[in-house]
Amino acid sequence: MNVSALSKSLGAAWRIGFRHHLAYPSEVLIQLVAACLIAGLNAALWSNVADAGAPVAGIGAQALGAEVLVAWAGIGAIATRVHEDLGERFRDGQIAADLVRPVPLPALIYARDLGRACAAFGVQALPLLTVSAWLAPLGLTAGPGRWAGWAAALFIAHVVNVAVSFLLGLAAFRVGSVVGLGYLKATLVSLFAGALLPPDLLGPTLGAIARLLPFHLLGSTPARVLLGRGDLTALLLEGSAWAVGLWLFGIFMWSRVARTFTLQGG
After folding, report:
1. Number of domains in the chain
2. With 80 as the cut, is the pLDDT of residue 211 above it?
3. In this structure, are residues 115 and 18 in contact, taking their beta carbons and an 8 Å threshold?
4. Would the pLDDT of 264 be above 60?
5. What long-range pairs does 230-237 form, CB within 8 A, spacing at least 24?
6. What is the pTM for the complete model shown?
7. Are 161 and 248 a contacting pair, CB within 8 Å?
8. Per the domain annotation, does 265 fall within a domain?
C-alpha cells in the first residue's frame, strides 16, 4: 500500500472514530454531567482544604485542587476502550480479518481512537475545564504557548494511553479475556494519574512507584504543563519517550501474535 492510500485509510478510520463518539448525544451529555458532578465534589473538597489555611505536603491546597481539576478535564478526552475492543476481536474471531488488511492494525486502531479523542476533547474536555474554572480558581491566565503545550501534552497522553490499552488487548491472545486487566488499569489510572489525588500526596513509596509508571502522564503531566508547574520541555520529553517506547513494544508484540495466531486450526 502506497503512502497516499495509507493516509486515506487512516483518515477514514479517524472520521469513523470521530463520528462514532458523537453518534449518541444523550450518552455524551450524561458522561459530561457525571464528570461535572465529580469536578464539583473535587472543587468543594479542595476549597474546604484551602479555607483551612495550611499547605498540604508543602503545596497550597488551591494549587493542588487546580491540578486535580485540570487533570480530570484532560482525562475525559484521552480515556479509551481499545483493550476491550481488541479483546472482543480475539474472542469472536474478527482478528482474522485484521491479519489480511493492507493497513497495519496498530495504525488503524490508533487513527480511529484519535478521531474519538478529538471529538471527546471538544464535547467533554473543554466544557469540563470551563465548568471547573467556574467552580474553583484555577489560575488559567497562561499565554498561547502554555495552552499549546497543554494540547501537546494531552496528545502525548493519548498516545501513551492507547499504547497501554493496545498491549492489554493483545493479552487476550493468551488469557482469553482482558476484563480483569482492564480493571487493573482503571485502578492504576485512578491512583496514579492525578485526577482524584495529586501525586504529591501519595507519599515517598507510592510517589516513587508513580514516577516509575506511565500513568502520571495521563492526567498530572498535562495539568502541570497548563498550570506552569515544572519544566515544559522536560515534561514533554518524558512523555514522548514513554510513547515511543510503548508503541515500539506494542508493534513488536503484535508482530509476534500475528505470526503465531491460529483460528479454527488455520
Report:
1. 1
2. yes
3. yes
4. no
5. 232/146, 232/149, 235/153, 236/149, 236/152, 236/153, 236/156
6. 0.90
7. no
8. no
Residue 189 belongs to some domain of the structure: yes
Give the mean pLDDT of 129-153.
83
Asked whether the predicted pLDDT for residue 52 surpasses 50, the reply is: yes
Measured CA to CA, the distance from residue 252 to residue 130 in angstroms comes to 40
Q: Rounded to whole angstroms, how far apart are CA atoms 252 and 260?
A: 13
Is 117 within a domain? Answer: yes
CA angle 59, 61, 64 (to 5 degrees): 75
On the CB side of 249, CA atoms within 13 Å amount to 15
Give me the pLDDT at residue 56, please: 64
Looking at residue 57, what DSSP letter applies? T
**pLDDT class for 144, splitting at 50, 70, 90?**
confident
From CA 29, how far away is CA 7, in angstroms rounded? 32
Please name the amino acid found at residue 163. Answer: A
Instruction: Answer whether residue 266 is part of any domain.
Output: no
Q: If you search the block for the grid coordinates 508484540, which residue do you land on? A: 253
**Predicted pLDDT at 266:** 43
Task: Using the predicted structure, report yes or no on whether residue 218 has a pLDDT greater than 50.
Answer: yes
Contacts of 183 (CB under 8 A, 6+ apart): none
Q: Which domain holds residue 218?
A: 3-260
